[in-house]
Design a protein that fits this description.
By secondary structure, this protein is an alpha+beta fold. It contains five helices and 15 strands. The chain has helices spanning about 1-20, 105-110, 135-140, 255-275, 280-290; strands at about 25-35, 40-50, 55, 60-65, 75-85, 90-95, 115, 120-135, 145-155, 165-170, 175-180, 190-195, 210-220, 225-230, 250. The protein has a 15-stranded mixed beta sheet that branches.
Length: about 290
């Protein structure tokens, strides 16, 4: 333990002292690749950081799935707006779409981003909640109508309890060290971070290392982030929490899970009345999909 501590001190302290005085803001572009049973896609993520906060722009979705046929085209219609108990506007939509094509990007459009506040140890992420209508159609394998409600999830920055190793490699010209997380919502992550860029941040919700994460993936290889471009001391951007300008409801992760559990139970009870078993493992899989 003492040997490992001395190793970390000798490696990271000189970088931090030298770099912290120089690097205050910057941006990094990642390529994210997804390869799960329900999602095969790629997208570009641009992470901007400035002192005590960062935001990730996740536009530019590129899917490997075949283009939709005319029968699979989604039909969207706004049916009303209302103010919830928190004073936020809720957008009600009826959407007819194959359930396999429901993605949160469809509702967040250009405001699809993630925000980390390192001072308050808070994280804001976009998500959505769907209520299935015409569930009888789902039982028969057909399309269903869903009511979609975009929302923002607010939670504490997660504790990944990283274990830093002495293994290293170069990424985009920067020397990086390997670290392994504890399991987080079903996945264990392997990250490569750069002490020379002393920003404790990374793609998606990953953070907490003594340097910027340039590459990361879960141990199964289903989710992977790879740095494509790093720019330091970039001045022409402003880091702000765009999610709070959407007017969408803000829920904690626990409130979101409870809301999702209620809807899951409604579906589960309906299927049960038809002699179909819908196990809790399905709900766990769906929640993990929403985290992707």
């Amino acid at each position: 333990m003492k040997k490992n501590f001395i190793f970390l001190l000798l490696i990271f302290l000189p970088f931090s002292i030298f770099s912290q005085a120089k690097i205050k803001k910057g941006k990094i572009v990642y390529l994210q690749a997804m390869n799960t049973s329900t999602n095969t896609s790629q997208r570009m993520i641009t992470l901007f950081w400035d002192n005590d906060c960062s935001m990730a722009d996740m536009k530019g979705i590129q899917s490997d799935e075949p283009k939709q046929s005319p029968k699979e085209t989604r039909e969207e219609k706004e049916v009303g707006r209302e103010i919830n108990e928190q004073g936020n506007e809720v957008i009600k939509k009826n959407i007819r779409v194959p359930t396999k094509n429901i993605r949160k990007e469809d509702w967040f459009k250009d405001k699809f981003s993630l925000f980390k506040d390192f001072k308050k140890k808070e994280l804001y992420s976009p998500n959505f909640f769907i209520t299935i209508k015409g569930i009888e159609a789902a039982v028969n394998g057909g399309d269903v109508e869903v009511e979609a409600q975009p929302l923002v999830v607010k939670e504490k920055l997660p504790d990944f309890a990283w274990q830093i190793t002495q293994e290293k490699k170069k990424i985009e010209g920067y020397e990086c060290f390997k670290a392994i997380s504890k399991p987080f919502r079903g996945r264990t992550y392997i990250a490569w971070f750069c002490p020379e860029i002393p920003i404790s941040d990374g793609p998606w919700k990953l953070w907490g290392l003594p340097g910027l994460i340039l590459e990361a993936q879960d141990e199964k290889g289903e989710v992977k982030f790879v740095a494509q471009k790093v720019e330091l001391q970039t001045e022409n951007f402003k880091v702000e929490n765009k999610l709070l300008t959407t007017g969408y409801p803000v829920l904690t992760w626990e409130e979101f899970k409870n809301k999702y559990q209620e809807e899951h139970n409604k579906r589960k009870n309906y299927y049960k009345s038809k002699g179909i078993t819908l196990g809790d493992s399905k709900m766990k899989l769906e929640l993990e999909d929403l985290e992707d």
